[in-house]
Backbone:
């Protein structure tokens, strides 16, 4: 009898044969409002069987791809630096083996561990950041490591002009003023993304997607919902451009499934995950 090992839809290749590794980072230890993103990766896997492997958006099928679902990291509570180090170590191993990766959060701080590993390998790295929030605080309630400071840490890692932010509609005034000097911030929507893709062609890119970039009428299952977000159609149009970029690292984060009892938010996260996987393996 076959063992019933749950993976994301069709992501059941052996690690050695896989072109891409999916893994979860179920951590929400610095969530500033409503916790629960630690349950995101498991919910996405469980609900993925409610969608098809075939994408009519790009006319490709997950069954034609070689993807290993490596499961969730077992992350400790109460030790944020250790969590980030474990994520970084996992990412380093995947990169060393010449594979792409997609990490499922978890809160947005998990990006930092993976980003550090990718930046070590690609010193000229750029970050594309879809989010409702600036995430450029220098600290939150005295803590420097927070999901609301993750892009500030990314800036400290990469420097000016390497971070491209879209959909941003919430943050402290000083964060927006900081962005004017140090990042490329596009308020409220995804306008200008196609032009950014053109400019970044041939450069290594880390793509981080906070699902609360979507309007909460579409995606309410998140810890810090912000009215005025983008539509699913707008997000999908942007995702379909990702294959034009050299995506060397990627994550999807901030699904808190239990805040949406209808399951709609998790279903949205599943479809977004499928489409990004197919874009990352567009040339495979």
Residues:
């Amino acid at each position: 009898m076959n063992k019933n090992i749950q993976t994301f839809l069709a992501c059941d290749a052996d690690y050695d044969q896989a072109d891409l590794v999916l893994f979860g980072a179920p951590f929400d230890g610095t969530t500033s409002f409503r916790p629960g993103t630690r349950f995101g990766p498991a919910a996405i896997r469980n609900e993925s069987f409610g969608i098809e492997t075939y994408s009519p958006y790009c006319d490709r099928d997950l069954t034609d791809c070689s993807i290993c679902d490596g499961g969730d990291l077992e992350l400790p509570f109460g030790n944020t630096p250790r969590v980030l180090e474990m994520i970084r170590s996992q990412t380093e191993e995947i990169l060393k083996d010449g594979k792409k990766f997609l990490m499922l959060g978890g809160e947005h701080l998990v990006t930092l561990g993976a980003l550090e590993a990718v930046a070590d390998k690609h010193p000229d790295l750029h970050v594309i950041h879809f989010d409702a929030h600036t995430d450029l605080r220098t600290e939150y309630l005295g803590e420097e490591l927070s999901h609301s400071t993750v892009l500030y840490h990314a800036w400290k890692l990469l420097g000016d002009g390497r971070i491209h932010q879209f959909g941003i509609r919430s943050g402290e005034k000083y964060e927006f003023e900081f962005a004017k000097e140090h990042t490329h911030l596009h308020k409220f929507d995804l306008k200008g993304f196609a032009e950014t893709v053109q400019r970044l062609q041939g450069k290594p890119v880390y793509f981080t997607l906070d699902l609360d970039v979507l309007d909460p009428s579409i995606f309410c299952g998140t810890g810090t919902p912000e009215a005025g977000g983008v539509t699913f159609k707008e997000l999908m149009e942007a995702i379909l451009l990702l294959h034009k970029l050299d995506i060397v690292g990627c994550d999807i984060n901030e699904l808190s499934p239990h805040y949406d009892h209808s399951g709609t938010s998790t279903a949205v996260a599943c479809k977004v995950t499928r489409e990004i996987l197919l874009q990352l393996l567009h040339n495979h």
User: Anything to note?
Assistant: The first strand starts at residue 20 and ends at 25. The beta strands are 20-25, 54-55, 60-61, 67-72, 100-105, 126-130, 163-168, 184-187, 204-210, 246-253.
